[in-house]
Amino acid sequence: MPAPTRKRRWLTICAITATAGLLAIPASAASGRHGGSPFGVRALDRLAEQRVHSVGAMSPHVKGEDGDDGNEADEIAEGADQYAEARTSPGIVAPGAYGAAWHGLRNLPRTAGSWRHVTDRPYNSDDSRYRDIDSNSSGGSGNVTGRMAAMAADDDGYVYAGSAGGGVWRSRSGGGHWQPVSDRLPSQSTGALAVDGAGRLWLGTGEANTNSDAYLGSGVYVLSHPHHGSFSPRSRVGGDELESTTVRQLRFGGGKVWAATSEGVWSHSTKRLTGAWKLEFAPNPDYLPGGSKAHDDSAAYKNITNDIAIDPEDPSKAVLAVGWRSGDDYNGFYTKVGGSWQRISSGFGDLPTDADNVGTVTFARSDDGSRYYAIDQSPEQMASNPDSGLGGIYSAASPFGPWTKVADYKQLAADGSALTTAGYMPGVQAWYNQFLTVDPADPKHLYAGLEEVYESKDGGTTWNTVGPYWNFTFPCWSIDPAKQTGDCNPTTHSDQHGVAIGRYHGRAYVYVGNDGGAYRRPVDGTQDASGHATDWTSLNDGTIDTLQYYSVGVGKDLDHGGVSVTGGLQDNGQSILRSNDKVMGSDFGGDGGDTLTDPANGCDIAEEYVYLSIQVTQNCAVNDGSWTTDPSKATSYNVAPPDNATSEARFIAPLAADAKNSSTWIAGGRHIWVQTKGYAIRSGSEWKSVYDLGAGHTATAVAASGGKVYAAWCGPCNNQGFTRGIAVGNADGTGWHDITLPVGGTVPNRYLSGFAIDPGNADHVYLTVNGFSRQWTEGPGAGAGHVFESTDGGTTWKDISKNLPDVPADSAVVTPNGGLAVGTDLGVVYRAPGRTTWQRVGTLPAVAVLQIRLSPDGTTLYAATHGRGIYSIKVRDCA
User: Fold this and answer.
1) Which pLDDT belongs to residue 36?
2) What is the per-residue pLDDT for 92?
3) How many angstroms separate the CA atoms of 632 and 340, rounded?
4) Residue 8: its pLDDT value, please?
5) How far apart are alpha carbons 125 and 493 in whole angstroms?
6) Can you spell out the DSSP letters for 98-153?
7) What would you measure as the largest C-alpha separation in the chain, in angstroms?
8) How far apart are CA 609 and CA 40, in angstroms?
9) Does the N-terminal peptide bond of residue 475 adopt cis geometry, omega within 30 degrees of 0?
10) Stretches in the chain below the pLDDT threshold 70
11) Rounded alpha-carbon distances, angstroms, from residue 826 to 105, 782, 810
């Protein structure tokens, strides 16, 4: 969930928020030009304008005297921290909350039924069937899966891919034929992977990309024989010191493993794995758990550390890269002098040392120790430069410098990049996209990852964009389905996070992880005349599913029988799986948010991009690309309600169809919008505002049945004055009123995430509540409970959570037999008809289930997980 800059593909952007995520831009928006182009006009022009408007919107240097420590602009910009807000408001969540929830959920009685993996097949983002105006098909990414935060590999053909929310996966064949190896852990969020000199695989949990759909971790784990077996809770290193942190890097030196975390730099012996971790350095220890300022609103951003460079000649000498991406007084480089850590203020050469210009940093060292490299993201530049936040790429003979700048964003843009348009150039998301590695056989051969993949064979003097963002901007591109991407070679998905070099059958390969999964090419690979690699291979073969769904829709497949299953994804658009498909396709690009699918016809689909930017199709968006020469042949339409244009909607905003009339839709931003043309809507002007939630308020959930509408809202939505409420009225605009929800009342003062209406009685409704109860949350009115029931149209509520563990609840449905299913951050629970207690439904890894939906006939429950794809189970098996 990004920040103030966005496009559709959709180019993944997130620049400046406290917890931001990604956006991309669709093919229809790629050029931003109005003539002489097959593309539409919506993205790059809009992106550039918004980037310009964002300049100066935040302080690049957090000042302690500011009432909110300078973080407010980061936290509220465009609502990009939605995912985190839902789980932390109205206050700060204490460490251990997820661990306790995981143990509680595991101890619930379990139903006998088993989940069926629905999306267990390749997902082809270039599927030639779907080349409509809002598709990214033919961009060149090929088969994709969910975001990979870290990669590791050895010289025996074993590759390890650590996903953002779906755990760690192992390949024994140089990539492909994957197996999950961390499903038993309480956290499926990967921060770092590393293979040590003894061949052990180290896993740091808790993704550290500071985007808002990431989770904190449960510590560091080690797998002594990673070619076999899997991680278990007993393989955790040390105690609980690193629980509820993120881990960005694991480095080794002097018999220690060093961890760069969200709560400082820690170390532990690599020989004796028991015993506590040692806190080596925290720039602001008062803000750590147990400190005098631990409950301060800015505590989560006061001890961010990014990387450690260790001198191999003397492992006692190290340089720490420390700092929050948006800037703080403590940002900088530190080394130990006279037994204490001191800020480096001089002698570093071109690499900045001042707090305004040291943000997210990644180090890399050659195997022979002769060269060091670094990427630096500049908070000051991120705040003031519409084009890029990249400070530069640097080289040195020692981690202590002097460092020489070997690349900046302008140089990279000129070296074959696809990002040459003002407002979106290399490093625009340098705080989010970073990797760096050196060829073990050549200290001058390195790979750098930002939004794209760059390669230098001469220590940074010259560069080639071997993995461009996509192929749309190049002369070789063609939308011709017979050519896939024209004469262009396949590229990787955009937004790079992890990298490793390993060998398979004696040949060295570079493995990259990004928002589309895992890719590889030979280290000594080939390039075309533009410097683009000719030999990328997608490793997302369908045996690995880490897709991050926000939503799921199910409708009858009228062409092939059975059902069509679709869903919106983080930076992988909208997937569609028809009943006869062996490969999923992508009919919409970019981020896919909420979705509506006509139960009677699975090709009637409404897909939200972000901020209520809604596209609709009535033919599954099947198109051969002929709209590029004849605009009348486009078969998808932008029907965004006005709150999209005014940015008065959540990043993933709520969208629902009336349970009794699929032609009546409800959308929520600041206003509650209704349209009654169903999938035949063709314009955003066809929405009608039926209720104004009020300035600063924005909808978090909507539902309707028989014309009665429920809408939940928040505003402010973060922990700085968090408020929430419920409004109820009719789709025709009559009878609207606010429900009184006092702070400290039955319904907690936390994020209201979903409604489920009784099909037989619209006044009988259930409410799900996110976040954690007062045991864990320091905030006014945090209360208790996660599921509530009203029998009088929302006027009064009763807590029916009973034995449900204290776990964030995201979505609910009433099953045809009168049962109630609830999707939570750690799986699905079910309350059988006539019962008051809950059971865990089947067995899923510890993954968030953000939405659950029923099949058209009501017999099957579908679960959209944010990290492991879509699953289904028969309702009869939930009991």
Assistant:
1) 28
2) 84
3) 69
4) 34
5) 9
6) HHHHHHHHHTS-B-S---EES--S-EETT-TTB-STT--TTSS--B--SPEEEEEE
7) 76
8) 16
9) no
10) 1-81, 212
11) 8, 20, 10
- The predicted pLDDT at position 81 comes to 67
**Residues contacting residue 696 through CB under 8 Å, at least 6 positions apart:** 715, 716
**DSSP secondary structure code for residue 82 in this structure:** H
DSSP string, 32-79: --SSSSSS-SSSHHHHHHHHHHHTTSS-SS--TTSTTTT-HHHHHGGG
Q: How far apart (Å, rounded) are the C-alpha atoms in residues 772 and 752?
A: 12
Q: What is the pLDDT of residue 50?
A: 34
Cis bond before residue 780 (omega within 30° of 0): no
Q: Using CA atoms, how far apart are residues 547 and 535, in angstroms rounded to an integer?
A: 24
Which residues lie below 8 Å from residue 265, measured CB to CB, with a gap of 6+? 258, 259, 279, 280, 281, 282, 305, 308, 320, 322
CA–CA separation, 76 and 68 (whole Å): 12
Number of helices followed by number of strands (H, E) in the chain: 6, 58
| 3-state SS assignment for residue 164 | coil
Per the CB < 8 A criterion, the answer to whether 529 and 841 are in contact is no
Structure tokens given for 87: 């789980």
Per DSSP, the residues of 191-224 read EEEEE-TTS-EEEEES--S-BTT------EEEES
The pLDDT value recorded for residue 262 is: 96
CA distance 789 to 768: 9
Beta bridge partners of residue 755, listed in sequence order = 767
SS3 409: helix
The tokens of 540 are what? 């997302």
Residue 250: what residue type? L
